[in-house]
Each structure stands twice: as C-alpha cells, then as structure tokens.
Write a structure and sequence with these properties.
Blueprint (H helix, E strand, L loop, with lengths): L5 E3 L2 E3 L2 E8 L6 E6 L2 E6 L10 E11 L1 E6 L12 H10 L2 E6 L10 H14 L3 E4 L15 H6 L6 E2 L9 H14 L2 E4 L12 E2 L2 H6 L3 E2 L1 H18 L3 E3 L5 H12 L4 E5 L1 H5 L21 H13 L4 E2 L8 H4 L16 H10 L6 H16 L16 E5 L4 E2 L18 E2 L2 E7 L2 E5 L2 E2 L2
Helix pairs in contact: 4-6, 6-7
The chain binds (4S)-2,6-dioxohexahydropyrimidine-4-carboxylic acid (DOR) and zinc ion.
The site of zinc ion has 5 residues, from loops.
Length: 443
C-alpha cells in the first residue's frame, strides 16, 4: 500500500501522482493526480501535493483497470494450487482491478456462506476486487437450482452465476435459471458443452486429434448449446453470457443472435486467440484446456469477432493446476492453464500488433465491456476527473519472458513457458492504492 492510503470502511482509498502517461495510448503524455481513490486532476504538469507517492509513467499507456469475468481461484478446497491471495497477486500483476472467481471450488460456491467468505477474503487481501460467482445448480450437479437469491442478497451481492467447468445441460433447468436470474437482475454465464457429445473427449475433434489418437470434442457440442441458450434467453426475455467462445460457428451464431436482438454476450480467452491444436503434437498436457484449442480458422474468426464486438470481451479462464495434474498422460491431465499475468500481452500481440484493436479497443474488451456485462459501476470507467482511480499502466515497448515458476500463482501451468511477451504491466492502481508496481505486489 502507498503511504498516502487510508482505510474507508474495509476498502482502502489511496492517493498517488502518475506522471507522464498517455490515456488509451492517445495524444501527448499527461499527469494524473489521484486523491482519496478518485482522479482529481488530469493534464500537463500537475502540481505534486506534499508527500504524495509518485509513479513516473515515462510515456506508458494508461487504461482503466482490467476486469476478468472468468478466474478460478481454487479457494476453498485446493489452496495448494491457488489461494485468493496468490490469485489476487497474479491479477494485480496482470493489470486487473476486479476478478470474478468461479464457483467450482470444494465446497462448491452454491450457497451464501461460501460466496460471502470468498468475498470477505478478497477484501482482506485487498489487491483486487474479488467477486464470487455463484453456482447455478447445487453442487454443480445440474439437477436442482442453487439458492441464487440468497447468494445475491448476501454480503457478496453475487451478480453472476455459472456452473463453469460443467454445462447446465438440462434445457428446462437452464430455462428456469434464466427466468429466475431475470427476476433477480443477475447474469447466467454458460460453459457451453453438450456433455453427451464430449464423453471421453480430450482435444478438438479434427485432423490433429485423429492423427494423434486423441478423443475428439466437436464444435457442435459448443454450438448446439450456444444456439439453444440464445433461444431460451429470447423466450425468457433474459440475458445469457457465453463463457470461452472457441469456434468459428459460435461466432456466426452470436452474430445471428445479436442481429435478432437477443441479449447474449460472450467472452474469448487469450489462449483461444493465440494458440491452436497444432500445439498438441508433443502430447504435452500443458496445452489441454476446456474447451480445447481449436484450428487456425477458429482463431482467426475469434480475433475478428472480438474486433467487431460480436465477441464482447476477453476473459482469462485462469485455471491453476498442480504439477502432478498436468505432467501426466494427456487423457488423465486436468484441463486448464494460467492466464492472469499473460492476458494483456497476448491481446497486445494478437489484436493490437496486427491493427485489429487500438488501446481504446483494448480498454473496451478488457475493462469496459466486462464491467458493463456484470453491472459494475466503479470499474471500466472513463479516465476522467471525478472517476474512481482503477487504473493500469502498460509499457507496450518492453517485452519479458514467461517463466512459470516466477508467476505469482501457486501453480506453474503456463503454456507460454520461455515465450517472449510484447508488453509489460508497469503498475496497477485500485481506488488510488498502488497494488502492483514494477513486477511486485505491494501488500
Ligand atoms: O480448462 C478449463 N479449466 N476449463 C473449464 O471449464 C474449467 C477449468 C478448471 O476449473 O480447471
Ligand atoms: Zn469453462
């Protein structure tokens, strides 16, 4: 925490002067003065109040703090692989000021005792706003709706529900969940995977999996649920959010649904923007993820869809796993890869470098849209006087090399080991409190 920070309730508000930064990467560098958690002044040569902490931005890009709608923090239950503290540190170092923690913990976050505990622990850690996601069904079993209302009414004020890791595959139950969510004003996020089509599946169904002898996960397993849930949302007059869209066909269906005026939103992961199933040649389960890495044409369609707004936002699906759960036979390994500290550089690489998005576009897909989708009013805000100082400073020129063991996560399952990343998060600021700076968390 900065010396100038103070505690207001249980939330710290800080003061800091950020010199020489370019909001959204546009125009001449300006200074940004933050006092008591809000942007107080913005312009050339702002006077420094006595004793204030100063960050020299050196012309860095300034964006609103990043918001991740899809993070697995593993607490409670698998604190050997990630905790709310270690995941929050990874998030702050990755430029995030808010993350949504998925419900597939042990015990499952299907009641307000668990969701309120996650929320409180996130507050105590104080590196990033941790919003627990509630389960849609009891125990993620897809049989009985969880007490969504109790979770929404609890201290955590749960605003997003998902059985992620599993699909709510029963269409009637999904229909009821959407109706109930509409009444509560909350969002259902679907892991779109028709389970009957993916029994035993470990890799994208295509020529690569066929050659390698890996059981295939067909595109239709995702797409059939996407279209089904769009129709259910239409009929219920409800909203549905599609987690980790991974196929060209899903992009077409999202376009169609949006054209019909159906209230559907979607996210794409950094790994589906960067990687494809050609990575599987080595049988290294570090590349195993759910939904699986697809083909080149899916990757290209997803990048274009993100640029066009058909896919609304980027979400990491940060999924830490222990070494013994990844360094084993492909079919036995758990699906998932780390994402929080590599997401922004991958978006810079796959979207900014080829001209598909500028930095204002990055602010849209990594901060503004995710905040809007879940209705956060203090995140994804404009960089302007009077706005909450949730900010990320990025040096787009300085590259760094990924080393799993150096990431803040308690796990090291990154598929990007030894890869050079083209942009660096210089600092992250949460309500004026510097949470990460020069690769170190501050608390
Ligand atoms: O790859 C994945 N890992 N996909 C999911 O849906 C769940 C996640 C996990 O919890 O490990
Ligand atoms: Zn999922």
């Amino acid at each position: 925490m900065t010396g100038a920070s103070q505690s207001v309730g249980s939330v710290a508000h800080g003061s800091v002067l950020i010199r020489s930064v370019r909001p959204y990467g546009e125009g001449d560098p300006v200074d940004v003065l933050v006092t008591d958690g809000e942007i107080a002044a913005l312009g050339a040569d702002v006077d420094a109040p006595d004793g204030i902490d100063v960050i020299d931005g050196d012309g860095a890009v300034l964006l609103p703090g990043l918001v991740d709608l899809h993070t697995h923090l593993r607490e409670p239950g698998r604190e050997d692989t990630e905790t709310i503290r270690s995941g929050s540190a990874a998030a702050a170092l990755g430029g995030y000021t808010a993350v949504f923690a998925m419900a597939n913990t042990a015990p499952v976050a299907d009641n307000s005792t668990v969701t309120d505990n996650v929320w409180r622990t996130g507050r105590e850690v104080g590196l990033v706003d941790v919003y627990p996601v509630g389960a849609v069904t009891v125990g993620l079993e897809g049989k009985q709706l969880a007490e969504m209302g109790m979770m929404a009414a609890g201290a955590a004020g749960v605003r997003m529900f998902s059985d992620d890791g599993k699909c709510v595959s029963d269409p009637l139950l999904m229909r009821r969940a959407l109706e109930y969510a509409k009444g509560l004003g909350v969002l259902i996020a679907q892991h779109a995977e028709e389970p009957r089509l993916t029994v035993g599946a470990v890799a994208h169904e295509g020529p690569t999996a066929a050659r390698l002898g890996l059981a295939g996960w067909p595109r239709a397993a995702e797409e059939s649920i996407v279209v089904r849930d769009a129709l259910l949302a239409r009929d219920a007059g409800a909203r549905v959010h599609i987690c980790h869209a991974s196929t060209e066909g899903t992009v077409s269906l999202l376009r169609w649904a949006k054209e019909q005026g159906i209230n559907v939103t979607a996210e794409v992961t950094p790994h589906h923007l960067l990687l494809d199933d050609s990575r599987l040649q080595t049988y290294d389960a570090i590349n195993k993820v759910n939904p699986p890495l697809r083909e080149e044409r899916d990757k290209i369609a997803l990048r274009q869809a993100l640029a066009d707004g058909i896919v609304d936002c980027v979400a990491t699906d940060h999924a830490p796993h222990a070494a013994q759960e990844k360094c084993c036979e492909f079919s036995q390994a758990k699906p998932g890869m780390l994402g929080l500290q590599t997401a922004l550089p991958i978006v810079a690489d796959t979207m900014v470098a080829p001209g598909l998005l500028d930095w204002r576009g990055v602010a849209r897909v990594m901060s503004e849209r995710p905040a809007e989708i879940v209705g956060l009013t203090d995140q994804g805000r404009p960089i302007a006087v009077g706005e909450p100082a949730n900010l990320t400073l990025i040096d787009p020129e300085t590259s760094w090399v990924v080393r799993g063991r150096d990431l803040a996560s308690l796990s090291a399952n990154t598929p990007y080991e030894a890869m050079s990343m083209p942009a660096t998060v210089v600092a992250t600021v949460l309500r004026g409190v510097v949470t990460a700076r020069d690769g170190q968390v501050t608390r």
